[in-house]
Design brief:
Helix 17 links the parallel strand 11 and strand 12. The chain has 430 residues and is of the alpha/beta class. Helices cover 43% and strands 13% of the residues. The chain is built from 18 helices and 13 strands. Strands 10-9-8-11-12-13 form a six-stranded parallel beta sheet. Strands 3-4-5 form a three-stranded parallel beta sheet. The protein folds into three domains: 187 residues, NAD(P)-binding Rossmann-like Domain (Rossmann fold), CATH 3.40.50.720; 83 residues, Orthogonal Bundle (N-(1-d-carboxylethyl)-l-norvaline Dehydrogenase, domain 2); 129 residues, Rossmann fold (3-Layer(aba) Sandwich). The structure holds nicotinamide-adenine-dinucleotide (NAD). Nicotinamide-adenine-dinucleotide binds next to helix 1 and helix 5.
Length: 430
């Protein structure tokens, strides 16, 4: 596995756990040192135990030496990052191409190169061009990854589908054998062209982002028309053609995938002179949502936020991960601090480097000390431990308010308890 991040590490550990010999390689020495001393560099439930188990069983090793990693392996998974290029919506594929060149340099015998990174349609063709000098040594396959952070191990073991894209039939058999322990438990195994597999991944993420954005926009309408968006989600989602998942209104979508992959898809389409207008408006709507929800703090606390104490519960883009990439908090917190608010936050995954240098922003290491004198508690991430808070007990400020971006609490209950409560897509009860 080249790239020992969320995808490479989880996939590597899980491949080892189903009996394969796995080498995880990363250029980040710090990460590899941590892993070799038994510490996971990322927070992912259940991962520490699996690392320990497979490391001890000598099925799993970690190195920064890409030469050794390549030469001891038959199948090489590229799992490096594919971020958005700075100042553009295009995908930065330089990490993928850089490690392809390393594979070319060090390979002395036949190898299968598999892209697990999310890559633009046609990237497999580019990889093939790079390795053309030793063409006979390589088969290039696409095997996009669909795991979700926070559920990654379960998703790896029980994927809805495994997608393999190749232009060579024999590659399907090799990959089928590798994935047999999963297909034996019922996971579907789909084969397609290499470009087809590359595009399936983008299409899936763009569609999920569209579903979230759709219900988020409807939430705005619900608030104005006195309807509860949860009724809409339920009423719509129980239609099997629609499905209820990803139909919960909340903050803008974030994370390491949807924001960059929606943009990546639009830019790939532009290369072919295709206008993906639906995905474009999803991107725009999602960006506007961050501003809309941030500005709503003014509606709750007034235009002057100077010295207002605002306590965030959760700052990661979703629960059970430490990943901060494109989280709504990255825009909300700096904005509020700039307006003079005193922001403190608690997240079960710990303090965040992203906020260390922001004036008036402090980490607290538990819910109680985070909220004790708050003017406003903002519930941003739905970690389990935020679901049954007795606000009256922990907040010692008579006039505090709660802004629940995940609709974790009942508006009626809050009203009964005389707590000023604001949520998303529900009629106001205050
Ligand atoms: N994170 C997710 O939930 C998720 C889910 C599905 C697909 N993906 C896709 O998988 C890919 C990886 O995502 P991630 O979240 O794991 O990224 P990540 O940033 O967590 O990890 C990438 C790792 O690659 C390493 N790396 C980069 N270049 C290298 C090189 N030449 N040699 C060795 N190591 C190198 C980096 O040091 C880093 O540790 C992306 O394309 C992403 O879109 C991510």
């Amino acid at each position: 596995m080249i790239g020992t991040g969320y995808v490479g590490l989880v996939s590597g550990v899980c491949f080892a756990d189903i009996g394969n010999q796995v080498v995880c390689v990363d250029k980040d020495k710090n990460k590899i040192d941590k892993l070799n001393s038994g510490i996971s560099p990322i927070y992912e439930p259940g991962l520490d135990e699996l690392i320990k188990k497979n490391f001890t069983a000598k099925r799993l090793s970690f190195t920064t030496n890409i030469d050794i990693a390549i030469n001891t392996s038959d199948i090489i998974f590229i799992c490096v990052g594919t971020p958005t290029r700075k100042g553009s919506i295009r995908v930065d594929l330089s990490f993928v191409y850089k490690c392809t060149k390393e594979i070319l340099k060090y390979s002395k015998r036949k190898k299968i190169i598999v892209t697990k990174s999310t890559v633009s349609v046609g990237t497999g063709d580019e990889i093939e061009k790079i390795v053309t000098r030793k063409k006979k040594l390589f088969t290039v396959i696409s095997n996009p990854e669909f795991l979700r952070e926070g559920e990654a191990i379960r998703d790896f073991r029980y994927p809805d589908r495994i997608v393999i894209g190749s232009n060579e039939k024999k590659a399907f058999n090799i990959m089928k054998k590798l994935y047999t322990p999963l297909t034996n438990k019922g996971s579907k195994f789909y084969t397609t062209s290499r470009r087809g597999a590359e595009l399936i991944k983008y299409a899936s993420n763009a569609f999920l982002a569209t579903k979230i954005t759709f219900i988020n926009e409807l939430a705005n309408l619900c608030e104005k028309s006195g309807v509860n968006v949860e009724d809409i989600s339920l009423g719509m989602g129980s239609d099997s053609r629609i499905g209820g998942r990803f139909l919960r209104a909340g903050p803008a979508y974030g994370g390491s995938c949807f924001p960059k992959d929606t943009k990546g898809l639009v830019s790939a389409a532009e290369k072919y002179k295709i206008n993906l207008s639906v995905v474009k408006s999803v991107i725009k709507s999602n960006q506007e949502r961050v501003n809309l929800l941030t500005k709503r703090v003014h509606k709750i606390l007034g235009s002057n936020l100077k010295n207002k104490k605002i306590s965030f519960l959760g700052v990661t883009f979703k629960p059970n991960t430490d990943d901060m990439r494109d989280s709504t908090s990255l825009k909300m917190i700096p904005y509020l601090c700039k307006k003079g608010a005193k922001v403190r936050y608690y997240d079960p995954s710990g303090e965040k480097n992203e906020f260390r240098k922001i004036k008036n922003c402090n980490f607290r290491n538990n819910i109680k000390s985070n909220c004790n004198d708050a003017d406003l508690v903002v519930l941003l991430t739905e970690w389990d431990e935020f679901k049954s808070i007795d606000f009256k007990k922990i907040v010692k400020n008579n006039k505090f308010k709660v802004y629940d971006l995940r609709n974790l609490y009942s508006a009626e209950e809050m009203k009964k308890n005389k707590i000023k409560y604001y949520s998303v897509g529900r009629p106001t009860t205050n």
